[in-house]
Amino acid sequence: MRSLKLSNRFFIASLFLSTSVFSAVQVIQPSENSYQDIQEALILAEPGDVVRLTAGTFYLKDSLSLDVSGVQVEGEGMNQTILDFSDQQSGAQGLSVTSDNVTLQDFSIQNAKGDAIKVKGVTNIKFLRVKTEWTNGPSSENGAYGLYPVESTNVLIDGCVAIGASDAGIYVGQSKNIIVRNSRAEYNVAGIEIENSYYADVFNNLATNNTGGILIFDLPGLPQQGGHHVRVFNNRSVGNNTDNFAPEGNIVGEVPRGTGIIIQANSDVEIFDNEIGDNDTVNIAVVTYGNETDDQTYYPHPKSIQIHGNEFGPTGYNPDTSKGELAQILFDLSGGNMPDIFWDGLVPLSQIIFGQPQDEKMIITNNGDGSLLAIKPIGFMLPYLEPAILDINEFDGQISPLPKVEFDENF
Amino acid sequence: MLSEFGFFKDMQNQIPADGVHPYSLVSQLFSDETDKLRFVFVPEGKKIGYEENKVFIFPVGSTLIKTFAYLNKNGPMDQQLLETRLLINTNEGWQAISYVWNEQQTDARRTIAGATIPTSFYNSEGKQIDVRYRAPNQNQCKECHQVNKTMTPIGPKARNMNKNVEYQSGGMNQLLYWAALGWIDQNLQSTSMSNYLDLDATLEDRARAYLDINCGHCHIPGGSADTTGLYLNFTEKDREQLGIYKKPVAAGRASGNLKYSIVPGHSNESIMLYRMRSLDPGIMMPESGRALADDAGIELIKNWIDKL
């Protein structure tokens, strides 16, 4: 056995010895071997290296993955460098990233069979001017997510475009420290979705032609939950009137067509200075998680929500009562006179009786001539009371601004 | 080249060198019905550590060698060696490298980005099947072999190894064989998992063994599919976490318009079975490591769900 051991040790050492000291730029052009070329470059890259994909269309049959820290993958423009997965045979994503300090920029991923770009469990990830698209328009056959960072810390999405996802175009899940800015989400079920996440700033984005524009959600049964500290400001969430095309079973399948912003569960959410209008059903909905769950640690109600300085356009003129219960309830309670803001009013039973703690109350102020409808659960319990609040001034109060999300963007 | 390691006396016939020992698992991954030839090398004089329900703790320098092949025992076709994967325990932890066999079947060459091998084989029922076999790339190795960002072997757990194996010296229980080599102690007090193909075992045991070995390396806390909270490892006890009346989280169209992972008594309404049946890369589970559907596994999980 001596000879095997010796040759073994020598050979193993040579296999894992890294020789490069300087960062390198590897340039790859479209070819017959596009998958092999790109995937090998992504595996052999050293921290600090750049993998550059030239202008043109790369036709890929298998999904790509990156697991080396500090690598930049760049194209020559989101409309110039196209990674086309229309004939994908294997792998559930277009591109998946599992390493830290990665920058993805200036390319587009088309027609992935599953999610376009999934980034899981990393610290520091930048998406700059990246586009994900399903080119045949809204269809339940499209992949679920466009840009999909999950379980990550320090997530920057800047100048990106997401089109046609059958769940969410830009979806950040179970993450911490998130900035989504200057991006556009169109023809997705959910335009931009922040789910089960902590500390997110979503600003200067356009969400249009989705089913729902911007969703701030929290779901039970997941490794990270109790989403909190989300600021949504200076966005335009307008004309999100595409029929819901999510496959059934998915939580966004319950979102009615024509929704500007939905806050579900979550605490400490500040929605301000946005333009929200031309949404068929409602401009802003604040709701409790409505499905049953065995998860004892999960808190299903939204709390400490602040909505101020928003400019509302027309809404509620064509409510979608076919998905979920929200639109129907709203339509019945408002007698067809649909509000800009809806709150389902659900709180724990003790708070129905004794009232909400002061710092958990919703504050709505300075929203021009915006209108409101909030359900009053006690009104349902005691028939001589009104079942709903229509006076927006009842929610007036002092805004306590949430802190800005900051992290070092120059990693 | 694979031959440079000196693991085999006879590469083509997969006869191991002295000191390299065959091993075998009770339940094994489907992987497009390939036959798997497994071998282990442990440096002389070293011992293997043991913790119940965990993978054996191999000493540095140990190597797990796994050749994927179509032996074609049930049809008029030569055997075909496809790829050999090595897991080597180095000072920096486990490293995965894989080798794809040449056409002459004399040696295998290292691959970084994996390989596509279009081929055909005779299955256990003597039927010829075409397959676009994919040897995984290095990152795909990690997808399944990483838990909490640390590479680990999957198969060699005591609970999945309590069985007889044919050695050059004759048949023997492989845990006793390992003890005789001085690698482990005689009595490990381990639980045993069923072979999911063993019809004498209970349906529950067979189903849980199948899910553990085919899904539980990713669907486990800290595994690459933990994001959605569906845990299919052998030791999971929570019914919702196992998928029973669990709503999909990030499945997209892979939900197949169904509401829950598992609806007891109704396999046709269960997303799990829908994804096992699919051949669409955006729907199918597992998401890598197969191009074909596992008919035996589908039948087993179908029966299990229908009787839940």
From TrEMBL, chain A:
Iron-sulfur found in the keyword field? no
Q: Which residues cross the membrane?
A: none
Stored InterPro entries: Beta_helix, PbH1, Pectin_lyas_fold, Pectin_lyase_fold/virulence, SO_2930-like_dom
Listed Pfam families: Beta_helix (PF13229)
Record-annotated Right handed beta helix domain positions? 69-217
Q: Which domain of life is it from?
A: Bacteria
Mind listing the UniProt keywords for this protein, alphabetically?
A: Signal
Output the SMART domains linked to this UniProt entry: PbH1 (SM00710)
Tell me the leader sequence span. Answer: 1-23
The record's listing under Gene3D superfamilies reads: Single-stranded right-handed beta-helix, Pectin lyase-like
**Mind telling me what this protein is named?**
Right handed beta helix domain-containing protein
Species in which this protein is naturally found: SAR86 cluster bacterium
